[in-house]
Amino acid sequence: MPAAPRPFDDVSAVHPCGEGEYAATVDAQWGVSNKPNGGYLLAMLGRAAVAGAGHEHVVTASAHYLHSPDAGAVTIETTVLRKGRSADHVRATLRQDGQACVEAVFMIGHLDEATSPYWDAGAAGRPSGDRDAAVRVPSTSPTGMRVPLMDQIDLRLDPSCLGFAVGSPSGSGELRGWLELLDGAPFDTTALLFAVDALPPATMEVRPTGWVPTLEMTAYVRALPVPGPLTILHRAGLVEAERVDETTTVWDSAGRLVAQATQLAGIRLG
Amino acid sequence: MPAAPRPFDDVSAVHPCGEGEYAATVDAQWGVSNKPNGGYLLAMLGRAAVAGAGHEHVVTASAHYLHSPDAGAVTIETTVLRKGRSADHVRATLRQDGQACVEAVFMIGHLDEATSPYWDAGAAGRPSGDRDAAVRVPSTSPTGMRVPLMDQIDLRLDPSCLGFAVGSPSGSGELRGWLELLDGAPFDTTALLFAVDALPPATMEVRPTGWVPTLEMTAYVRALPVPGPLTILHRAGLVEAERVDETTTVWDSAGRLVAQATQLAGIRLG
Fold first, then answer.
1. How many Å apart are CA A106 and CA A84, to the nearest integer?
2. How many beta-carbon contacts under 8 Å exist across A and B?
3. B243–A222: do the CB atoms touch at under 8 Å?
4. What confidence score (pLDDT) does residue A220 get?
5. What residues of A are in contact with residue B203 (Cβ under 8 Å)?
6. Separation between Cα atoms, residue A172 and residue A161, nearest integer Å
7. Chain A residue with minimal CA distance to B243?
8. Which residues in chain A have Cβ-Cβ distances shorter than 8 Å to B257?
């Protein structure tokens, strides 16, 4: 029986426990097998970074993943690298039992609701599919791996990129989906850090494999999303020497580009 | 009269001056106006990170730019975040007069010469233009800004993306070029960190502006380049709220994809 869903705000909460220090708990369900999702951990770090900053929105985040923590207690140490009028820069390090697990640097600034694109190359075209016709991702992957995260969120994929689920990946290396939190909570700029890493590896539509651990991930938040499901495009780039780069673009329910991310991950291919 | 070119190896050199500490000198010529190039600074940090690691190649680098240093003396403090069998993770912070200017985290590992792509989406198609027909970028920009860097390197742009130089940007937001170091030195993995930021802003082909300062830049080195000029594709994504994202792809002279980067920069548009 799947674990009862817990709100994202709860599982990513951080609690001050010293000067620039926060305590948090990695939830056992927010990941793949027993490995917590990288975007979930980055969101947790982002909440600690915002808590210690003089501004409110994550604008950039770049993270290196050093060691996958187990579910349970972690600490987050934050250091303000620079305080500015328009943005602060904050380093945050997540540790478990003294071991560094994730280190990220954030630019925390202010995003205005009233902005609009000046110019857009449109290189990552927003998927035009129909969310009502999309298929919710189950919590067991085609390779038999348990993905408890999928019982905690409402993630749906376009049927045209579900070849991997029936043993026939399209070869496109591209997944298109829609993401909602189960409690219907809107996505703030820290929840967007989870959203950019919520889809299965885009390489599922090249060749399904086991765990594809994120090594480095960088996200840019470009606008504040309106409430409603996010549309997400997740694309693999080059698979070589057991590494793959993936790019992710996120739009809000009004069609506005709100976040972009790139990651390098390990993979047992190439 | 332009300053005599200095080899990249010299201007990016770092000298041990304590436990995990390095001294370096920011060259006045390697930048735009009096601002040093962000990729040049990242390469300097990368050399310090490699010096303190048990492996030899930069695989990933993610940097936040906090404050632009002046030409002159800087120090680089490195901290090994994790030592591993296949890779080390190293944080490096560049300071001038005690002020933090750039902080970056690196994954330092080993890239094998014998690898080849397993799968490639080909999303960033390698420019097919002719380097012999390309135009060397001069050290004065169309907006009248001095770019002394261009006297220090051999950077040539495809004539089809030079509209900006004659007041008629194509609107593509894309630059395609070829880069060589003037002393003909091959690009190692740290020099590639400079290469990903060597081109003018891709927004020149949207609308020429003044300085476009890098806020965050992340680079992945995917393979070791063979000697010879690099081919570089530099594309703008979304310009909004005085920020722009740019993606850069670099191929070696044999046509192999060797590096990828993304950056968020400030711009006086939107």
1. 13
2. 168
3. yes
4. 98
5. 119
6. 8
7. A222
8. 238
Q: Is the dihedral of CA B218, B223, B227, B232 positive or negative?
A: negative
Residue ranges covered by each domain of chain B: 8-110+131-266
Q: Pick from B192, B222, B211, B204: which is nearest to B157 by CA? A: B204
* DSSP 8-state code for residue B151: G
Q: What percent of chain B lies above the pLDDT cut of 90? A: 90
Among partner residues B117, B235, B238, which is closest to A239 by beta-carbon distance?
A: B117
What part of A 221-250 touches B (C-beta under 8 Å)?
A: 222-223, 235-241, 243, 245
Contact predicate A24/A74, CB 8 Å:
yes
Count CB neighbours of B21 within 10 A: 15
**A180: amino acid identity, one letter:** E
The CA distance from A104 to A46, in Å, is 9
Task: Answer whether CATH 2.40.160.210 is correct for domain B8-110+131-266.
Answer: yes
Whether B67 sits inside 8 A of A81 (CB atoms) is no
Q: Report CA Rg, chain A.
A: 18
Answer for the pair A107, A92: CB distance below 8 angstroms, yes or no. Answer: no
Amino acid at A145: M
Quick check: helix, strand or coil at residue B53?
coil
Q: What are phi and psi of B168, to 5 degrees?
A: -130, 70
CA-CA distances (angstroms) from residue A148 to A39, A130, B135, B170? Answer: 15, 25, 55, 49
In the numeric block, the tokens 């990016």 are attached to B12
Q: Taking CB atoms and an 8 Å limit, are A238 and B222 in contact across chains?
A: yes
Q: Which amino acid is at A261?
A: A
Find tokens 């902080």 and name the residue: B103
Rounded CA gap, A177 and B78, in Å? 40
Whether B80 and chain A come into contact, CB under 8 Å, resolves to: no
Compute the distance between CA of residue A270 and CA of residue B233 in angstroms, rounded to an integer: 24
Mutation for testing the B interface, residue in A90, A116, A238 having most B CBs under 10 Å: A238
Bridge partners (DSSP) listed for residue B61: B106, B219
Task: Please report where in the chains the tokens 């310090």 appear, as a residue.
Answer: B48
Residues 6+ apart with CB under 8 A from B167: B142
Sign of CA pseudo-dihedral A155, A156, A160, A163: positive
Can you tell me whether residue B76 is helix, strand or coil?
strand
Q: Are B118 and A269 in contact (CB under 8 A)?
A: yes
List, for residues B239-263, the tens digit of each pLDDT value: 999 999 999 999 999 999 999 999 9
Fold (CATH) for A8-110+130-266: Porin (2.40.160)
- In this prediction the ipTM stands at 0.97
Burial track B181-193 (b if 16+ CB lie within 10 A, e otherwise): beeeeebbbbbbb
Q: What percent of chain A has pLDDT above 90?
A: 90
A238 with B111: Cβ contact below 8 A = no
pLDDT of residue B2: 72
The H helix count followed by the E strand count for chain B is 3, 16
| Interface residue B120 vs chain A (CB under 8 A) | yes
Interface of A with B in 155-184 (CB under 8 A): 172-174
Residue among B89, B121, B235 whose CB faces A235 most closely: B121
Task: Tell if the CB–CB gap between B91 and A103 is shorter than 8 Å.
Answer: yes
